[in-house]
Design brief:
Layout (H helix, E strand, L loop, with lengths): L2 H16 L1 H8 L21 E2 L2 E8 L4 E6 H12 L6 H18 L17 E2 L11 H7 L5 H13 L3 E5 L2 E2 L4 E2 L36 E7 H7 L16 E6 L5 E6 L2 E4 H8 L6 E5 L3 E7 L7 E2 H9 L4 H8 L4 E4 L3
Parallel strand pairs: 2-4, 7-14
Antiparallel strand pairs: 1-2, 2-3, 5-6, 5-15, 8-13, 9-10, 10-11, 12-13
Helix pairs in contact: 3-4, 3-6, 4-6, 4-9, 4-10
The structure holds zinc ion (ZN) (2 copies).
The site of one zinc ion has 7 residues, from loops.
């Protein structure tokens, strides 16, 4: 895979991370009950589970139709869209278990919210801006845009080797959110989303993502662009930074900007991120002649698994289970079906 493709895939990853659907999911259900003992089994086949295999109703936004497929078949397409081919096998396996957990949490037949994007009743859609990124492994092969056959084989093996495995906290499926790169410290979910504290989505120090191209970034925002992007009630100097005063009004547990004061007007960090298209809400700044110079850290919301961190941890010899238990403290990986 080319570096360009890798970057494109990571861009998709970031879009997925930003999506409101995940936020809704976070703020909603308290988690579906799942224990290996009481997990639904092949008996009493439902639409979501035929022949002992979970079925996913995927809305393919590109085709405008719903396709029903096996969960693991679906997961291969998710990993293809989410993971660079350079990533270690244990990182692929960690992502497979997390994406499986996230998807089961969405399944309507299990009480999940599903996806409201489709005209029919779908569990999830392929739109990176709405649910979870997904690429068709079959057609991607022909387009040559999604990695080699060898990479797809590695993905299939990662999904197969973790078959039936999910992440649970106190016997319930976790809200398995993830992001590209935390930049050294992950974020607590309650800093961004409603629904209270989730002990397994707390801020932790991550020493593993320094090799990410998104670990640190620099962006110069000309004053004219700043004025155009910010809400009208933010008082800005006309053309220079002479009278511009930025202050962090409040910080998140993960050391990100929760609220920023711009010349006395408060603006939420996540709103600023959206308006200025910043990679994350972790940033510092310098006032320059030409504009506001931002030094950013990481990419994505920062909650849950750090994908580049997962790769770094795998390079350091950690197993996929160790990686998951590191990024979602207090959880465990369990097999809910054979
Ligand atoms: Zn959707
Ligand atoms: Zn990290």
């Amino acid at each position: 895979m080319t570096r360009k493709t890798t970057l494109l895939i990571m861009a998709i990853v970031v879009l997925v991370i930003f999506l409101p659907a995940v936020v809704v999911s976070i703020g909603g259900r308290s988690g579906l009950p799942f224990q290996s003992a009481n997990a639904p089994s092949a008996q009493g086949e439902s639409e979501s589970e035929k022949g002992g295999r979970w079925q996913v109703r995927l809305y393919r936004a590109d085709q405008g139709e719903i396709t029903v497929m096996d969960l693991d078949e679906y997961l291969v397409g998710v990993l293809l869209a989410e993971m660079p081919s350079s990533f270690e096998t244990e990182a692929l396996k960690a992502q497979a278990v997390i994406a499986r957990t996230y998807t089961l949490h969405q399944l309507r037949s299990l009480g999940g919210d599903g996806c409201d994007k489709a005209p029919g009743k779908a569990d999830i859609c392929s739109e990176s801006t709405h649910c979870q990124a997904w690429l068709d492994p079959g057609s991607a092969a022909g387009q040559g845009g999604s990695g080699s056959e060898a990479f797809r084989d590695r993905i299939r093996k990662a999904v197969f080797d973790t078959r039936g495995e999910v992440v649970v906290y106190q016997g319930r499926l976790i809200e398995a959110v993830y992001h590209s790169t935390c930049g050294g410290k992950t974020e607590a979910s309650h800093a961004l989303w409603s629904g209270g504290v989730r002990p397994y989505l707390k801020s932790i120090n991550c020493p593993y993502c320094q090799h990410s191209p998104h670990y640190r970034g620099e962006i110069l925002i000309p004053f004219t662009r700043l004025a155009a992007a910010l809400p009208q009630d933010v008082a800005l100097p006309a053309a220079s930074g002479d009278e511009l005063v930025l202050e962090v009004a409040s910080e998140t547990p993960g050391g990100r900007v929760k609220t920023l004061s711009i010349n006395g007007t408060l603006i939420e960090g996540k709103e600023l991120r959206r308006l200025l298209e910043l990679p994350s809400t972790a940033f510092t700044w310098e006032y320059r002649e030409e504009g506001l110079f931002l030094i950013t850290r990481g990419r994505g919301h920062g909650v849950g698994l750090c994908q580049y961190g997962a790769d770094g941890a795998a390079r350091a010899g950690k197993s996929y289970r160790q990686i998951i238990e590191f990024y979602y403290p207090g959880t465990e990986v369990t097999k809910i079906m054979p």
